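Posting here for the record, re: flavin-adenine dinucleotide.
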Amino acid sequence: MSGCCGPTAIELKASSQAARPDELTVVVIGAGPVGLAAAAHLAERGIDFTLLEAGDRVAASVAQWGHVRVFSPYRYNIDAAARRLLEADGWTAPDADWLPTGAELIDDYLAPLAKLFGDKVRLGAQVSAISRLGYDRVRTAGREQAPFLIRLADGTELHARAIIDASGTYTSPNVLGASGLPAHGESDAADLVDHALPDVLGADRDRYEGRRVLVVGAGHSAATTLLALAELEHTPIIWAIRAGDAGRTYGGGEADALPARGALGTRLRAHVTSGRIRLLTGFFTHRVHATGQGVEVVSRDPSGREQSVTVDRIVSATGYRPDHAIASELRLDLDPVLGSTRALAPLIDPNQHSCGTVPAHGVDELAHPEAGYYAVGVKSYGRAPTFLMATGYEQVRSVAAALAGDWEAARDVQLDLPETGVCSSGLAEAQEQRVGLATGISGGLLSTPLPLATVSATGTAGATATAGAGAGGGGGCCG
Ligand SMILES: Cc1cc2nc3c(=O)[nH]c(=O)nc-3n(C[C@H](O)[C@H](O)[C@H](O)COP(=O)(O)OP(=O)(O)OC[C@H]3O[C@@H](n4cnc5c(N)ncnc54)[C@H](O)[C@@H]3O)c2cc1C
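Prediction output follows.
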C-alpha cells in the first residue's frame, strides 16, 4: 500500500522481485531505417532486443512514400552496423551513388536487414502506451529500478530494461488548421484529405485526374505534389499558403545560392505564372466542409478577412509533429518549441541549421529525466525538418553503446557528412539521364539553413523559431 510519501519497503521489495531490469530485453519501437539500425547495433553488442512495428511490413512509413526518390545517395542511407551484419550474410550493397526510392530502400536494404533478426521483429505490434511497471509519472522512490511496461494495441504487455523509441513522425501529420489546431470540420472531411506525398502519377492517379485539387503547404512536399499534379490533364490545381507570397518556396531561381531549391522553385513559379497552378496567399485554413459541389475550404486570416475555395480533394502538406502521447507517463523534458529534448534543440534548430550542418550528437543529447527511454530518429527532432538518416544512425550507435556500458564509445559521436550536404540534385539529374527516370522532384541540397518563414499576426513574413512547425510548413531537408 502506498503512503502519501511513496511506496513502503515491502512494496519496493515486491516490485524488484517481479523483474530484474538488467535481465530484460531492450524494446525498440518502429522498424523504420533508424529502428532497424538500432537493432543492428544492439545485435552487434550482444544485447537482447525486441523490435515492435505497428505496420504489417517493415518500414511501413517509408512504404507510404515508396514512390518518392530520396536525395541522399545510398552511401549515407546505410547504417555501418547494418552493413556489417548484412555483408556477413552475403548481401551486396547497392550502388553507393544511387538515389533510391522509398520502395527501393525497403527492398534492397531494410527488408533484408529485418530478415536477419527473425522473430525479434514483431509486425502488427502497435505500441499504445509505455510506463514504468508499478509507477505512474509522479512516483519516484525506486523508479529507476522498475522495468519499463510496454502496452500494445491488442492489450498485451511487455517489460523492458530500456526503450528506444524510433516510431517516427509520419503517422502524426500536422493539421490543416492554420493555428496548429484542426480546422473546423477537418475530421468530418477526412475522406477528402490526403496527407503529404500521395502517389499522384501512380497508384493514386484516379483520385486526382480530372478533379479540382487544393494543396496546402509551402515546403518541398507541397512543391513535389504540385509539380506532379501539373502533369495531369484536366486537373485544376490550387495552391494555398499562409505567407504573403511564395518566395520562400521558389527560392532565388537561377540566382539561388542553392541550385536545387532554385530549380524546384523555377518550375513551380512557371506553373503559377502561366496560370496552370492558381496560388492563394495569406490563406489560413479555418473551416472545411463537404457540400453538394465538393469540399469548401474557408480561410480566415488573423484580421478576420475570409476567402474560400471549393475543390474535390485536398492535399495537406503541412509537415509532421512527434506524438509523445504514448510516453505521457514517463518523465520527458521537451523543448517547448520543437518537442525534441532541450539539449538537442539548439543543434537542430532550422533557423541555424540545415540537415547538412546539424552536428553529431548521441546519448547525452537524447537523454530524458526518465533514465533508459530514448526517442531517436526523426521523432527525436520533433518539429525540426532537419533530420537525416545518417544522423539517426549515429544516435542509435551511441545509445546502444551506452546501454552496453561502453560510455567512451557512446560519447565519441562522429558524423562523416560532406560540407555540401548529403542530398544532391546533381546526382538526381545524372541518375534521371542514366535510367530515364522522371522523378518530378528537385531540391533538397541544403548546405545552409533554409530561411523558413512564418506569417506574423499582421501578415508579414519573418523567420521564427517555429518555422515549419505548423500548418503550411512541411518543408524538409531532403523530403
Ligand atoms: C519523402 C521523404 C524523403 C526523405 N528523403 C530523405 C533523404 O533523402 N535522406 C535522408 O537522410 N532522409 C530523408 N528523409 C527523412 C528521414 O530520413 C526519413 O523520414 C526516415 O524514414 C526516418 O526514419 P525513422 O526510422 O526515424 O522513422 P520512420 O521511417 O518514420 O519509421 C517509423 C516506424 O515506426 C512505426 N511506428 C509508428 N508508430 C508506432 C507505434 N506506436 N508502435 C509501433 N510502431 C510504430 C512506423 O510504422 C514506422 O515503420 C525523407 C523523408 C521523407 C518523408
